[in-house]
TrEMBL record:
<feature type="domain" description="Rieske">
    <location>
        <begin position="43"/>
        <end position="149"/>
    </location>
</feature>
<dbReference type="GO" id="GO:0051213">
    <property type="term" value="F:dioxygenase activity"/>
</dbReference>
<keyword id="KW-0408">Iron</keyword>
<dbReference type="Pfam" id="PF00355">
    <property type="entry name" value="Rieske"/>
</dbReference>
<keyword id="KW-0479">Metal-binding</keyword>
<keyword id="KW-0223">Dioxygenase</keyword>
<dbReference type="InterPro" id="IPR015879">
    <property type="entry name" value="Ring_hydroxy_dOase_asu_C_dom"/>
</dbReference>
<dbReference type="Pfam" id="PF00848">
    <property type="entry name" value="Ring_hydroxyl_A"/>
</dbReference>
<protein>
    <submittedName>
        <fullName>Aromatic ring-hydroxylating dioxygenase subunit alpha</fullName>
    </submittedName>
</protein>
<keyword id="KW-0001">2Fe-2S</keyword>
<keyword id="KW-0411">Iron-sulfur</keyword>
<dbReference type="InterPro" id="IPR036922">
    <property type="entry name" value="Rieske_2Fe-2S_sf"/>
</dbReference>
<dbReference type="InterPro" id="IPR001663">
    <property type="entry name" value="Rng_hydr_dOase-A"/>
</dbReference>
<dbReference type="GO" id="GO:0005506">
    <property type="term" value="F:iron ion binding"/>
</dbReference>
<dbReference type="InterPro" id="IPR017941">
    <property type="entry name" value="Rieske_2Fe-2S"/>
</dbReference>
<keyword id="KW-0560">Oxidoreductase</keyword>
<dbReference type="GO" id="GO:0051537">
    <property type="term" value="F:2 iron, 2 sulfur cluster binding"/>
</dbReference>
Length: 410
């Protein structure tokens, strides 16, 4: 209860249009509440269909105390379960990815099928009912090659997001993708600082020489204000929509997600040093050239760039109040062959460099916020409206959960 009161007081003390009070970026108690009340109650991006193509392939995904096993079941469906054995609760899958026809608990070998049913439990006596000890399901949805899960039984609506995003994503053919490369970096900063940094390009010209070859730092491209009055965007949308690609700016009523297609600089086509495509066998078979990037974000776990030749996806996983895992995945056509259709360095070098530059920015931001001199500072209304929008979403979503919890506790 003390933590609840503390969190509410911090949220109430924040000044709109300003960075957050220090405690929201650094306190363990706040972090624990965020995991329980935000991350474990909302839809989270957990991976891609193409990472688990065969029956029994699985990945695990952990936020706070909750961990899911996301597995391809025998019927071809993707399902998710809590990674906790129904015997005495041991973690069942102990590596981040794997493949198994059955899930066998390492502790006493209770054995489950790919649909979570308990198949085998040794010497449990005549009254033992295996059907009462299936793995606990985690809600799971997959569309356009993306998997989202929700740990809460009363998950919020997912369909409105799907209805908006799916038409933008389907032309990119991610059901026929493969994972060309994945990178995981741990940034010594709060997860909200990772997001704040992502939601503006105010820092781009000073920090991202490689990315700036192809990605414009125009506030209308990264932010959420002024898109309809931007002729460059409008011309791009008109051309792409005429080619059958949904492109216009759309944002959720509750601010949680946004989609939009943006052009890349001049005649460039992909996030490479030359601006030329990195992959000669494009995803989705889109005929139109120079379609730029389809930008998708969904708070609190993912931002994405869907290009013509490949897709780059980003996953934000908080580890502690000052530690965040950022996982980047490069997806290419499943038949594209490394060394023939693409070169891995050419494909990955721009974002590998950009991620490292962003990691440093986030870490330095955290260190400065930890200073006794820190006080919340103003966001640029021109370049940082996307950050304001993120912070507003966070304060509203977290505040709502805190209010509901204190109502229940009263
Ligand atoms: O990944 C992105 O979309 C953002 C846009 C601006 C900064 N960052 C690179
Ligand atoms: Fe899993 Fe005992 S805890 S079999
Ligand atoms: Fe950046």
């Amino acid at each position: 209860m003390d933590a609840l009161i503390h969190a509410k007081a911090l949220l109430e003390s924040r000044r709109p249009g300003y960075s957050l009070p220090q405690g929201l970026y650094s306190d363990q108690a706040i972090f624990d509440l965020e995991m329980d009340m935000l991350f474990q109650r909302d839809w989270l991006f957990a991976g891609h269909d193409c990472e688990i193509p065969k029956v029994g392939d699985y990945v695990t995904y952990k936020v706070g105390s909750a961990e899911a096993i996301i597995i391809r079941s025998a019927d071809g469906e993707i399902r998710a379960f809590h990674n906790s054995c129904r015997h005495r609760g041991s973690r069942l899958c102990q590596s981040h990815r794997g493949s198994a026809p059955r899930l066998v608990c390492p502790y006493h070998q209770w054995t489950y099928d790919t649909e979570g049913k308990l198949l085998f439990a040794r010497e449990m006596g005549p009254s033992f009912d295996p059907t009462a000890h299936a793995l606990k399901p985690v809600q799971c949805r997959s569309f356009a090659g993306y998997i989202f899960i929700c740990f809460a039984e009363d998950a919020p609506d997912f369909e409105a997001f799907r209805a908006v995003a799916e038409p933008y994503m389907l032309p990119h053919g991610l059901k026929d993708a493969k994972l060309a490369h994945s990178s995981s970096i741990v940034e010594a900063g709060n997860w909200k600082l990772v997001w704040e940094n992502n939601r503006e390009c105010y820092h781009c010209s000073g920090s991202h020489p490689e990315l700036c070859r192809t990605y414009s730092d125009a506030p209308t491209f990264t932010g959420v204000v002024g898109q309809d009055g931007d002729d460059t965007l409008k011309n791009h949308w008109d051309r792409c929509e005429a080619a059958g690609l949904p492109s216009t700016f759309q944002i959720a009523d509750n601010n949680q997600y946004r989609v939009m297609r943006v052009p890349l600089n001049r005649d460039t086509e992909s996030f490479t040093m030359s601006g030329k495509p990195a992959v000669s066998k494009p995803l989705g078979g889109i005929g139109e050239q120079r379609i730029g990037s389809m930008l998708l974000f969904h708070y609190p776990t993912t931002w994405n760039h869907l290009l013509r030749d490949h897709t780059v996806t980003f996953q934000v996983t908080p580890i502690g109040p000052k530690e965040t895992l950022v996982t980047t995945k490069w997806l290419v056509h499943k038949d594209a062959v490394e060394g023939v259709d693409y070169d891995l360095k050419t494909l990955t070098e721009v974002w590998t460099a950009t991620n490292d530059q962003d990691r440093r920015l986030v870490e330095q931001n955290q260190m400065g916020i930890d200073s006794p001199a820190y006080e919340p500072g103003p966001y640029s209304p021109v370049y940082e409206d996307g950050v304001i929008q993120f912070v507003d979403w966070y304060c509203e979503a977290f505040g709502k959960q805190l209010n509901a919890a204190s109502f229940l506790a009263a």
